[in-house]
Design a protein that fits this description.
This protein is an alpha+beta fold. The chain has ten helices and eleven strands.
Length: 457
């Protein structure tokens, strides 16, 4: 065996030397392949990521956290409050008591003092409890509104995902058409060399090929932008690479009919749920404002110290139990009226949303059915276009058809293929809208789809 210092290693068994450079290069290729390999992002995975890692999801979580912290602040009314104050007081004159011509010293000109007070609310006719209830209702409303925002972001992610797949499908269609035109160009050249067709046939085909190459570049640009929009919806860096599935199968069946969809939407629609929570929060606020003017029974304990050499007891400790009640000249009544108006507005918005959702569900259901019908028609059209192109190509080889006939047939086939892809993705888009309206878990629903072959971005 030769030493490693000469840059080669011999393999036992006599299969020839293998250089260290070759080993290093092979290792680099393996590492590069492992680094370049990316996990395929399925539609279900994109929707799940949009629901948990997107900016909309993070914002909703923070808003809910903020509302929860406000509730904790309101609940602090059940805990006694403690005030501590102290410091040095400096007067411009010594304090004295004057009783006619007799004057007595009353304290120090400069002195130290402190005060410790603990105060607790004994009873306020339920105002404190209603304040907590109102805050909890606001917390629920914030949570429901956040979920609604996340669902809307999921729909944006689905649109971007499907848009990227549509551009990928367009790229595939263009690639197939480019290959067909290249094949036709070779046939045209062969026929031209034998004097069967004119040179104009070659020029027309070459121009058509260049147009297809321009369309291919446009499809690449569109796919890049669609992927950037998808990354943004997922909370990723827009420029991050992403690998999508090669294609999607036919959209899975719906779990209900039209009437079942309407019923599900009225029960679980996220926008309606958010408005219902908003109504409950407004009503809880009204209940709180109605008790805002009630008196409060309080208990207070205090301990004071004031530096004064003339006082026998500079320390004072005591307690107070009594009623606290303030009149504000109608400000509380104005806040009550405002809360009642907000509750009425929330009810009007809720009623309108329920009627609107019923219409939206009806439209989305019909659009989905129409998209499925058009997808089936497009699939039949692709088969017919393939047969038409085969016939035209045979006629061209026999000198019966012209180049323009072949180019037209190829263009029709390309359009039919693209239409089929567009209709399938449109069916997914309409279905996702319908599922969101009905409060369905989009990521869970589409998890039944298989992860097909991947396609590099």
């Amino acid at each position: 065996m030769r030493s490693a210092s000469d840059g080669t290693f011999s393999k036992r068994g006599g299969h020839g030397p293998l250089t260290a450079r070759a080993l290093f290069a092979a290792l680099l290729l393996m590492v590069g392949a492992a680094a370049g390999a990316q996990e395929t992002l399925t539609l279900s995975g994109a929707l799940a990521e949009a629901a948990t890692k997107s900016d909309a999801a993070k914002s909703s979580a923070l808003q809910l956290q903020e509302a929860s912290q406000k509730t904790d602040e309101v609940k602090s009314a059940y805990v006694p409050s403690v005030d501590i104050s102290g410091g040095r007081t400096m007067l411009n004159n010594d304090p004295f008591f004057a009783f006619g011509p007799v004057i007595f010293p009353a304290g120090e000109q400069d002195y130290w003092s402190y005060q410790l007070t603990a105060k607790y609310l004994l009873w306020d006719f339920g105002r404190r409890k209603r304040a907590v209830d109102a805050s909890l209702s606001r917390e629920t409303a914030v949570d429901k509104a956040g979920r609604d925002a996340v669902v809307k972001n999921q729909l944006q992610a689905a649109d971007s995902y499907l848009g990227a797949l549509l551009y990928d499908s367009r790229h595939e269609v263009i690639a197939l058409r480019k290959k067909a035109l290249q094949d036709h160009l070779r046939v045209a050249r062969d026929l031209f060399d034998h004097g069967v067709v004119a040179r104009n046939d070659l020029l027309r085909t070459e121009v058509a090929l260049r147009n297809v190459e321009d369309q291919d570049k446009d499809a690449d640009n569109g796919a890049t932008i669609a992927r950037q929009a998808l990354n943004r919806s997922l909370g990723r860096d827009p420029s991050a690479p992403v690998t999508l599935v090669k294609e999607l199968p036919a959209a899975p069946p719906l779990p209900w009919d039209s009437e079942g969809a309407k019923k599900a939407a009225l029960e679980r629609n996220p926008s309606i749920a958010a408005l219902e929570a908003r109504v409950q929060a407004a009503e809880a606020s009204v209940n709180f404002e109605r008790r805002e003017g009630a008196p409060a029974f309080v208990a207070e304990a205090f301990h004071n110290y004031s530096q004064n050499r003339y006082m026998l007891y500079p320390y004072v400790t005591g307690a107070f139990v009594g009623v606290s009640w303030s009149l504000d000249g109608g400000a509380r009544h104005a806040r009550l009226s405002q809360s009642m108006t907000e509750a009425d507005l929330a009810r009007v918005a809720l009623d309108d949303a329920r009627r609107g959702v019923a219409i939206q569900v009806e439209q989305a259901y019909r659009d989905f059915q129409q998209a499925e019908r058009e997808e089936q028609t497009a699939e039949t059209n692709v088969k017919a276009s393939l047969e038409n192109l085969r016939i035209i190509e045979d006629q061209y080889k026999e000198g019966i058809a012209k180049t323009t006939d072949v180019l037209d047939a190829e263009s029709i086939l390309a359009d039919s293929r693209y239409t089929l892809a567009a209709q399938r993705l449109r069916a997914y888009q309409k279905q996702a809208q319908l599922l969101a309206l009905c409060g369905e878990d989009l990521a869970k629903f589409y998890s039944q789809l298989p992860a097909d072959l991947t396609k590099e971005p």
